Amino acid sequence: MTAVTPAPVPVIDRDLPARGRRRPRPVRGSRPGWIVYASLAAVLLASIFPFYWSLLIGSGDASTVRDPNMSWIPGGNFFANAAAVMGDPAVNFWPALLNSIISSALIAASVVFFSTLAGWAFAKLKFRGGPWLLLFVVGTMAVPMQLGVVPLYILFSELGWTGQLGAIIIPALTSAFGVFWMTQYLRQAVPDELIEAARVDGATSFRTFLTVGVPAARPAAAMLGLFTFVSAWNNFFWPFIVLDRQNPTLPVALSLLQSNYFVDYSKVLAGVLLSTIPLLVLFVFAGKQLVSGIMQGAVKG
Q: Region (Disordered) spans which residues (predicted)?
């Protein structure tokens, strides 16, 4: 038999450009243009300016806000104004700060727990009247809080809870928006086949919720918890009505700086900056985990 000699393979010089071969063209829109960067810079400056203005006034004295030749460089009185706010006996800064931390943390934890539980029920459990009940929950968001202030105050007055911290925590333990948020997220994030597999393995409904629903809901729950904490921290209307000056939250306590005949806006804005420091610390420590959780949920989805 005659051996068949394979044909020699031509050697291609990779250093020389191949004739007739088209180079891949860059996809348009793969990199943002200058319009995007300019828009982001404008939004960033608009977001930072209120903080810079507060620092500018809060680091001056009582005449800074009315000075037509005011310097745009912060002064050196911020720590003195901050110390005056924290040491003012009419403000009760430290008890108010503790009340804000406790109430905001409890409200955020409660809203995340109940919203995740209710969202799981609406999204993955089939029961009679579920869509109509969810529609009713969403419809309650159209009712402004101001309509329920009078009966709510009468209720807590009869219970003897006016002036106590529980009066602002109990009405905010649940959130219609949180239920809707978690329902929409869990409906798309958790496949029904995963739930059926857990049931085949003998898991109960609550066990399935803990092992399947809770891990899948972490990104949305982190967002909901952060937004709820910030909303409860900045809430002024209801705490101002139901709490007294001896047991206020931080926004209510700082409003007492403007109750005098002469308002020193340097101390007022110094107090405003002090009230935003805990939120900035929260965003610094939770921001990276929050973004990583969102990206992880997006990849899994």
A: 1-27
Residue 55 has pLDDT above 50, yes or no: yes
Reported as half-sphere exposure (CB side, CA atoms, 13 A), residue 63 has a value of 3
Cβ neighbours around 259 below 10 Å, total:
9
Please return the burial class of 28, using the count of CB atoms within 10 Å of its CB with bins 0-12, 13-18 and 19+.
Answer: exposed
Q: What is the tens place of the pLDDT at every residue in 217-274?
A: 888 898 899 899 999 999 999 999 999 888 899 999 988 888 767 778 888 889 889 9
**Could you give the angle at the alpha carbon of 122 between the alpha carbons of 116 and 126, nearest 5°?**
135
Which structure tokens are listed for 291?
Answer: 């973004």
Query: Contact at 8 Å (CB) between 97 and 281?
Result: no
Full DSSP string of 155-208: HHHHHT-TTSTHHHHGGGS--HHHHHHHHHHHHHHS-HHHHHHHHHTT--HHHH
DSSP 140: G
CA distance 96 to 247: 7
